[in-house]
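Box 3.1. Reading complex inputs
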Amino acid sequence: MHDEFVGDDPLQSVIAALREPVAVEPGLRQRAAGRATRQRRAGVARIAVLALLVLSAVAIVHRPASGTSAVTFTLRAPAGSTVALVGDFTDWRSDRLHLSPSGSGVWQATIRLRPGRYRFAYLVDHRQWRADTVAPTAPDDFGRPTSLLTVNP
Amino acid sequence: MNTRRLVALSIMALAAAPLALCGQDARITARFTPVVAAHLNATIDSASSEGLPAEPLVLRALEGQAKGATADQIVAALSRLRDALRTARVALGSTATPTDLMTAAAALQLGMPPSRLTELRQLRGDRGIGAPLTAYLDLTARGVSADRTWDRISDLARRRASDADFGRLTPRDVDHQRDEDWP
Amino acid sequence: MIPTDDQLIAQIAAGEPTALDQLMNRHGPRLMRFATHYLHSSSDADDVLQEVFLRADRAIRNGSRPDQVSAWLFRITVNRCRSHRRRWWPFVSGAAADHAIARAATTDTHEQFAWRDEIDRALSTLSAPLREAFLLKHVDGMAYDEMVAVTGASLSALKMRVTRACDQLRERLQEVRNA
């Protein structure tokens, strides 16, 4: 079925590994039934808790009167030793903004941005480009992941 | 970059030198070889002379350099972006702001037909196209169908929705019909 | 005699308690594999599958009679995975992150786990739409017309996403190997 893969394309072995069965934990039906009961009981309280947790990896955390907004960027990169934030707001220089480790492989930085639309990406260990996991993906001319951020006025 | 291409670029750069000298961007000059920088600056400057915004072109060139793209790839990307900016101005008219042109060019590069830009401008009138186009770009970039997103955006525009209404749109709003069909 | 999917749907609608178990046993593994790779977490995937079967159960009892049961369940799964990711991903520093870190910690001693971790990391660098299209096409082996029905995306968009996903994965794997 993978006619498009030729020679020793590494994707063939990736696909073979990913196609290995993944077990369903026994008792799914019982867990689902318990979940239905909990959902009925929790009702509005559950919705309120979820609302508190609906944030994105790029979160606008503060909007003062000065016209700029504080934006927090978060990336999970457990194996990385440096994470640079690179984008329109750094003139695509990788030496201006770095995320700091905040535990459990999570990296963060908060910067102030004026309203506008920005393209950006993370550069892990100076070589691996990564898109944001939640922000929209930008169309890319150069074959590297890119994300979009809109800061509203 | 191959030799033939380099020679061609050098000739073009020399021809464009008077223009480029007028509108050199220091960031471009600092990050590229003189030949490539002259060519890129010429492209950017000619776009500026047409009344198109220069900043998105400069940033796209810098992005390509940061990502290790070849000069050919960067030149091609700038040409595509400049063409999209031109098309956006034709679709939106000569009074379009630089921000509107940049947003509209991004939508065109995602495959939006220019006729939809014109329709959106007519639907929105004085209220501007920034908010609906930004919502369109965000939703389609999140994987929501372009046609479905356009239907929702144009419907809101027809009903004279506010900028805030567009800002509140989520993929779930656009996928509402789908969620009804599929639990 | 093994009941068909349509017969199981009819039995669920009639309140037969074991029919949903049989439907889960039949389709659960495929859905679990997709959800696990899409969300990078078996515990999140388990969470999604509970929701999928709850919703399917309710829909059948409310009169839904899907023509293609497998595609129908897949579409619910894809929708639930998308919602789950939007809702929880920024906060996976809990269970899902621990899971990933525990898996990474085994890489020094087990070559097989190291390879799986490489794959996982490469997969996690893809944007959600690309990852979704790649998994449906190449891991689950769906035809493009099925993918259109499951995802709601256009044929051309799906083809583009699969191609870009393959290109990006090759590049990531090469980067890891060269490191």
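In summary: Residues 106 and 112 of chain C are 10 Å apart (CA to CA).
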